[in-house]
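[Automated response] Your request has been received and processed.

Submitted sequence:
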Amino acid sequence: MSPGTCGSGYECLANRCVPLGSEPVAIETLRVVLTPSDIAVVTANGPRPAQGVPGVVRFGSAQDGPTALFLRFAPVRARAQRIDRAFLLLEPMPGAAGGHDDVQVEALHVGSSWDDASLSWSRQPRVGLPKSPGLARSSPPSTLRIDVTELVRHQRERSHADVAIAVKAGGGSGAGAVFATGATRGLGPRLELYVRRAPDATVTP
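Generated structure:
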């Protein structure tokens, strides 16, 4: 979503049009931050690193082409609470040279497991709905914040063992938007949950 897309009296927050001056979350919610238990990057134009996770993921780059970032988070254990909002955050890689164009990305539900040893562009886990759009900006470098509320609720309601998210983007003609994976420098991806106790919930340890 680009500036000017939202109408008069509205602004863009996490790729959503909301009334001007709105808070992204309710003030009475509790913030919970999760870091990935597993992370992988695959690209259409090159092999995966022989070992480990690359230090960066590039969306919309000519070098890597179409790109997918796979993230797995530990189960959300707050059974006595309901998820009010959920955001996936990626931070720009410090010092990395990015492009000048905004890059459209999508966060998607991952419906099957993946094996790090055999994961490649041609062998990816199954992905699908729900999905959430995002806009990666690198001029200037900015935090990529994607509203994944429906995606997280979907997985939690179906008692998935974990929360698995794929972030995908097509290739481009320049350097793209460059984000840190946390494997070398910079702050890696995180899942930011805002939860509140359900009206009829019983608090458990």
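Summary generated for your ticket: Residues 18-23, 201-205 have pLDDT under 50 and may be disordered. The two ends are 41 Å apart (CA to CA).
If you did not submit this request, please reply to this message.
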